[in-house]
Design goal:
Shape of chain A: globular
Number of strands of chain A: 10
Oligomer: heterodimer
Order of helices and strands of chain A: HEEEHEEHEHHHHEHEHEEHH
Strand content of chain A: 15-25%
Strand content of chain B: under 5%
Largest sheet of chain A: 6 strands, mixed
CATH class of the largest domain in chain B: Mainly Alpha
Radius of gyration of chain A: 20 Å
Distance between the termini of chain B: 39 Å
Strand order of the largest sheet of chain A: 6-7-8-3-9-10
Helix content of chain A: 25-40%
Number of domains of chain B: 2
Amino acid sequence: MERLTPPPIRRIVVDDDPTVVAAPPPGQAPAPANGTVVAGSPLAPAGGAAAGATGTPGASSFVSAPRRRPATEGLGTERMHLEELTVAYSGKEAVKRVTLPVRQGEVLALIGPSGCGKTTLLRSLNRLTELTPTATQGGRIVLDGEDTGLLEVTQLRRRVSMVFQQPNPFPMSVFDNVAYALREQGTKRPGKAALNEPVAEALRRAGLWDEVAEDLDHAALRLSGGQQQRLCIARALAAGPEVLLLDEPCSALDPRSTQIIEDLIVGLRKDVAVVIVTHNLQQAYRIADYVGFMYLGDLVEYGPAEEVFGNPREERTREYVSGAFG
Amino acid sequence: MEAHTTPLPGAAAPAPRTRAVESTATWRRRDRIGLALCWAAGILLCLIAFGLVAYMAVRGVQYLKLDLLTTRPLSDLDQSKTGGFLDPIIGTVILTVVGTLLALPLGVATAVWITEYARPSWLARAVESGVEMVAGTPSIVLAIFGLLLFSESVFSFLSFTAQGGAVFGRSFFTAGAMMSLIALPLVFGSTREALQSIPGHVREASYALGKTKAATIRRVLLPTARPGIATGTALGMGRIAGDTAIVVILLGATLQLQSAGDTPGLSTLKGTGSTLTSYVYNNSPAGEGNAPEKAYAAAFVLLLIVIALNFAIDLLSNKRKAPTWSG
C-alpha cells in the first residue's frame, strides 16, 4: 500500500534549524524535555527580578511562577508576517495597522481585554474573516514570502489551520474526524487503509493516541471535553500545517485538561508556528515565548513574554497585566 | 414567612414538612379550574386516541381475513365476490415511494440552499413563502391543479393517451408528483431545522481545514442532519399514505392496477390504480362499493401503516439525542 502523501504544497526550504539557533548560556544545563515544568528557568527569574527592581505594582504576582516551557531558544524561523494589517467590520476598525512576525519555534500569545481585536487578528491569518460579509481588510499578510490574499484559500487553510474555543469535533468517529482533514474535497478517497498511519501520527502528536488507539470508531462527541479539544488539535495538525492558530483553546476546559493542552502546545512549537489567543494571563505567561498585547484594535506592545509581563514598556500593558482593568 | 437558618449543632431537628412548598390548594379558584381543564384535555385526547385505535382494531380484526390482503379487488354486485385489497396496498406503497423519491431531493436541496446560501435575500424570502404556500394548499386544490397541468399534451409521457390524442393525466406519476408537494414542506422543514441546529463554529472548523463549502455540506452538514431528514421523510410518507383527494382525482381510482403501455414497471407507473384511502372511501357507505366491512378492514391496515411510520419517527427522533456540542 502506498503511503499517503498530502496534496502538493509548496514550501520554502528552511536552512537553519530553529532548535539550534541559540546556544544555551554557558553553565546552564541543556533544556529539559518538552512539557517539563521548569521552576526557575533561566529567564524567568530575570523577569521577576526586573519587576521587583522597578517596583511594578502587582505585575510580579505570577511572574515568578513556574513556566511550562523550557528556556527560550532564541529567535525561530519566520513563517508569517503581518504588515500594517487593518481589519474592519462595516467600516469600524477592529484591528488597526498591526505589524507582527509569526515564527516557528516560538509560541506567540495575543492577550488583551474582550473586543480588542485579538480573535479578529487570528482569524484574518487564515482568512476566516472572509466568512463575515461585512469584513474588509487592509495591509498584507505574508506566508513564507507569499501574500496570503493571493493564495487559493483552501490551500492557505491547510497550511494555516485553526483550533476553536469550543471543542467542535464533527459528529463522526475519532478516525473519520482526523481522516476528514486528509481526504480530498468531499470524497472518501483515499480509503481507510491508506490513512491508518497518518491518522495515528496526528493523534500521537496531539497526545491523544494512547487514549483512543483501542477504539478509533468511538463517536468523537462522546469523548470528554479535553479529549475533544485534543482531537481538534490532531485534526488541525493532520494535513501538516506550518502555522497553528488557537483561539482560547482551554477556556471551556477544566484545569487538568488545560494543563495537558498547554504542555502539548509548548511541545508543538518546534515543528509549527503557534499563535494562541487567550484571556488567561497566567496561561499566556506559562506557555508563550512572545506576547502581543492588544487594546482597542491596536497592538500596544509586542515582545518576549518576560518583558511584557515583567517590565512592560507601555503604561496600558502594565495596568492590564497587573489586573487594573480587563 | 419564617426565616430558615441552619440549626445549631445539637439543636433538635426541624419538624418534618407536612405539605408541599407550593400547593395548588393555595391557588385562586379560577386558576385551579384552569389547571383541572388542562388535565382533562390531556386525558380526553388520550382517550380519543386509544378509543379510535381500539375501535378500529376490534372492527378491523373482526373483518380482516388473510385472503383480503392477498386477493385483488373485483367489481361485483355480490359482496362475497368483490375480492380483497391487494392492489390498493400495492398502490399505497408505489405512490408513497414515488412521492417520497421526488420530495426528498427537492426538499433537502431547498433546505440546504436556504440555510447555507440564501442569496439574494429576496429570492430566499420568496422560496420560503413558496414552501409555506404549498404547505397550506388543500390537497384537493393540488389535485385539481395537477389534473389540469398533466392533461397538457407535453406531459403525455406521464400517463396514457386516449384515441384521438386526449391526455388522460391520471397515473402514479402524476399523482406521485402532486403527493411530493404534500411531503415537501415536511422534508424541507425538518431538514432546515436540523441544519440550523448545527453551530456555526462546526462549519468554520471544516473551512479552517481547507475544505470548500460543497465538501462541508456533503461530508459534515448532511450526515449530521440525517436524523432530521429521516424524520421529515417519515412524516411526509405518513401524509402521502393518508391522503385521499389526490388519489381520487389523479390516480384514476380504478380498483385494480391498470397498466398503460408495455414496458414492465414503467407501464404500472404510467397506469392508474387505487390506494387504501380511496378503497376505504369507495367501500364506505358514502362510496359506490358499499362494503363497510372491507372498508373497516382496509382502514385498520392503513392505520397500522401510519402508526408504524409514527413509531419510526419516534425512533429516529430519539437518535437525535445523540451527544452534541457543548455550548
